[in-house]
Amino acid sequence: MLRVIGHRLLVSIPLLFIVTFAVFGLESLIPGNAAQTILGENATPAAVAQLNTQMGLNDPFFERYAHWVGHAVTGNFGSSVISGAPVWTSVVTRLGVTMSLLIPSLVLAAVAGVVLGMASAVRGGWLARLIDVVSLLGFALPSFWVGLILVSIFAVKLGVLPATGYTPLGTSPSEWIASITLPVVALSLYGITAIAKQTRDSASEVLDSDYIRFLRANGVPERSVLLKHVLRNSSIPVATSLGLISIGALGGTVFIENVFVLPGLGSLATQATLDHDIPVILGVALCFTLAVIAINLVIDLIYGLLNPKVRVS
Amino acid sequence: MTAGVDTTQTHDGPAAPADPARQSIVRSLLRTPRGLLTVGFLVVLFVASLLAPVVAPHDPLHQELKHALEGPSGQYWLGTDGLGRDVLSRLLYGGRSSLLGVLEGVVAHVIVAVPLGIAAGYLGGWTDRIITRVVDIVMSVPTIVILLALLTMFDRNISAAMITLGALSAAGTTRMIRAAALSVRGELFVSAAELLGLSRPQILFRHILPRCRGVIIVQVSLFAAVALGIQTGLTYLSLGPPPPAPTWGGMVADAASSVSNDPWLLVPAGGLIGITVLCFGILGDTVRDITAQSSTASAGLRAPRRRPEPATGAPEEGALLSVRELSVTFRTPSGDRDVLTSVSFDVQPGETLGLVGESGSGKTVTARAVLGLLENNGAVAHGSARFDGVDLLALPRKRWAALRGKRIALISQEPMVALDPSFTVGAQLREVVRAHDHSGRAEAHERVLELLRLVELPDPEEIVKQYPFQISGGMAQRVAIALALAGRPDLLVADEPTTALDVTVQAEILDLLRRLQQETGMAIVLVTHDWGVVADSCSRVAVMYAGQVVERADVEDVFRHPSHPYTRALMATSPEHAERGRPIAAIAGQVPAPGTWPTGCRFAARCPLMTEACRREPVAMVDLGEGRDSRCLMATSILEGTSA
Ligand code: SF4
Questions:
Q1: CB-based contact, A165 to chain B, within 8 Å
Q2: ipTM greater than 0.85
């Protein structure tokens, strides 16, 4: 188990460098002058020159990267070129919103996906076909569009849930739930269907395995066969697939936060992109990468708990 | 999608030799309704977008404010948007940038993934290790944020974003291609080609690449689906071409702004995105189904469960289990297929019946049918299995399940996979004991230890804490036997219990079974292909061939005077047939597969005594007296010949 965690942390360090280095590298690829791009066509030469000095854009590339990394490890990520606010503060305040979207979505996706997948593997018939159709829709329909459809039904037509905006959990738990319900549903749809499919496939395989036949043949009650033995064994490959699904969902928050106007990291990143706010986008990229590392670690742990082969050796 | 196929096809030189797997992917794709439909839709979409200036009914930018937000009509087939622009025309023009984006992504994806995957799989060694490491890391990159960073620097440059997306998401595809290339490399014909002195590029282009084509097409179409989702997402965030240029994502964003007075506008753009993504996705799935072998295709099939027609034959006097005219049918993608026809045998209390035959003869299916544990796509069509007077096949499933473990138990062929790998040996034994005895924890634990001592396992206290993968095959089989005995069954079905073990362990397990049988008085149905096991352990034998019982007799009679040419051939090819551990030696030819059985005698193709009469009609069981039967027209003369 410790080895698994160690390995994960070891591959995480290159990941952090690759992402930040890539973003940094892009900056130096900008045709012409970065400061000009940031400030727009109409900026005065004086303003451009000032920004160049401020961002250290006149220094050589590696020097600037080393400089940024040096500051970053001490928690200093620079400040927004638009608002002047420190990047770290805005990233941290918005992280909560994104997480209160992402975590419930992943939990919902895992629970609903496993239940549907198990039901479809055991029952077959019309339920399996229905799940097939729904998973195709979940795969095909873009989450931002699903979000808009949910808004038009539940917020505009029925008026039961707010269309936009975010209430922090600390302010009012019930309003928090109302404000994240639609976004969470829209964000988790893809995960639900992907996990349902994966669960169905692995559960069908387990149901056909020698040990299930053996346990059934020797009198293990059907309930326990399904809820204990099949569920446990088919959740191992599901846990593996959860990694990529979570990384996908993290990316999905960018679109969902825009649809529902939630002040999270995704909308921060979008705004920064529109504003050419390089320090902010770097901060968000770093934060997303850290989130991915955390997700992978959690999934490694879940995998280890489910799979005794990892635990024992 | 066409893009995906084209890009991969360019790698195939026309001089490449014919390989059956090669040409057929695109053709067999078009032969499936799903494939034809999705390819058709995508081609139409591509052509219509390309020809948008010609086919679009209106100028996509022309505003007709007095027609704003109109629903579908003869003039505006899909209605108009908030500025009175024709939705259909905007979709067609918007398709150009969306599909171009997908194409750019796909090209980058292929350029990165194909060489890397093939290099890793084919070259192996350090190349493989480095590529695999990098792929592992890149798989975790949060791609969206990289794309946003890119668009921060390169204003509205969707092409750059799609190319980056294609390259970054190539990691997963690289991994799949690597696996495919690795398996091809291991195959014989590549090494043969190497011996013939082909150069590396020739091997790559003629052998490796064509065989990876299926994987490439599957991965590329799945990527195309993802790429389209992201392209429309980015344009939805207005990071794409500036307005008023039409984009699919931009149209969704426009629709969103008027969602309260006209929700219809969400439908055309979202629907078209959905359908297109779906087509890419289904295309990938279809190609995967085509290239994967048909083994998975029957996975979802279920045979209808109905009560089988009962058999008319009377059970043997005093039999514990009496199987009569058992016929089993499996549902396969190519129709229903009989795998057992009219199998009959009896087991007396306390005796051991050997069910003998080559693989494919139907012995395991017989055992499973008696336990009520056929696969989902199999069902008993006809027959009865009277156990202690009750026809199991006519019982409601619940009552049949209640007999399993308590009256009839099973041990199976591969002890290493017979136990659930996620639970300890003790947990599994305890669960079964408690299901049978309804006992408390402590009591159940005692019984578990007792069972483990019964099967002669040393140190039961230690073994209960182990997981199945921590113990040896012989130990696992002992644990399996202990588990089967937990319900104190009257009949034990042992499906090739020693085949997977080494010879010395085999002997120990057979000795153990014999001892347990003497102590408990249970009957055993021993499924085996090993005559040594039959000689050692069985009192009676039913020999199976191609889904039928061809000979039934006491064990001594079979060994001394086999009455069926098949049994005789088995004996002849195995002169020291009483030697344990020896499988049935090969007879020329093969057991015909279900679905290819001849009308007449099923052994005819391999039989030295075959005459015209044998092929004419199904051969019935001939009663030879003294509890012997044989399914052969020559049975009587064979018996006279050999006993004379
Ligand atoms: S019936 Fe004819 S073909 Fe069949 S086993 Fe007997 S002799 Fe051979």
A1: no
A2: yes
